[in-house]
Amino acid sequence: MKRKILIEKRDNRIRTYYMEDGDIVEIHSSLADESRQSAHRLGDVYIGKVKNIVPNIGAAFIEISKGVNCYYDLKDSDTALFTHKSGQKKLCIGDELVVQISREAVKTKAPTVTSNLSFTGRYAVLTHGNTRIGVSSKIPKALREEYKERLSPLKNERYGMIVRTNAKDVPFQEVADEIETLQREYEDLTKTAPSRVCFSCLKSAPPSYILDLKNGYMDGMEEIVVSDKELYTRIQAFFRTELPEKLDLLKLYENPDFPLDKLYSTQEALEKALRERAWLKTGGYLVIQPTEALTVIDVNSGKAAVRAGSRTGSEEGAMKVNLEAAEEAARQIRLRNLSGIIIVDFINMESEENTQKLLHKFRTCLARDPIQTSLADITALGLVEITRKKVRRPLSEQEAL
What we know:
Shape: globular
Number of helices: 9
Largest sheet: 6 strands, mixed
Mean pLDDT: 90
Helix content: 25-40%
Number of strands: 22
Low-confidence stretches: none
Distance between the termini: 33 Å
Oligomer: single chain
């Protein structure tokens, strides 16, 4: 697969466009003025204070700065790093502990924090609270077993590690060197934390556009094109320290007569990704409507001919639209960064065989998403249920900040 990343600064925003085989498959957006961005970003580590405990939902609310209360799963307290204890129970109101933002605030929901800290590198993640040594399932089995065997001497009772997909094409020593760096970072933070006051930020996540580059797949990457000189200089500095071997992929694009958004139609792609309706080649279309609790995707036949005068013709027409809709729905979910519960209402079909073919096709399309996405079930009313891991805000909310 041929990959390309476009980064442009326009309308006081920095937007990152991921391209695969010539198509834009992801768009991320953030404010160019970092001082106006959210003070609480994914990956930030704080010393928080327990403000409330709600046993019946298995949660606590932890304040990480004045007035900012975050959701916290009580199960995480088993491995918490406390800087101050107020009582003998596992978790008490007034306790101060080290937490990391695991989900950004979404709409009216506060950020989610966890005691299971993650220190993420290019090739590996060090995980406090999870002591196992894991390897990405996207790495070939033989290489997975080799990694587990060679890293087994590092197993301990405090933290574990996960080897990421990006590690499959680099020498083992590069991965080992990065793990050593992550270990030092972890040790420094855990030693420093007890001497810091409540609400201290122990670790700040880099700007989102840097994080995108750090976490993005470089397999098949042809170039990373940046349209702003200042932005290019910052990203160049990141590559020199973090990814020196990929520095030659970075390109500065300066052509005022034919800007980047004209060359790759990025503005048009963004506008389409923010519309409620997405058209299909068959003449059908999707209506995509996010709500407070879930996102609904409704498949409509539109101009497509699904009623051909017979039951067979109608079934074949519905199947054709549905198969295209499955591929487009999977693309839109990733493009718009939709997450949580997603319900898709396909055109009704009578054939159970066709329904199973459609679900198989949909699962195959969803499997291409780098974020964990699962097709859960189809309800008695024919609605397809999907869950997608919540990591960051959907594109529409990123643009609204």
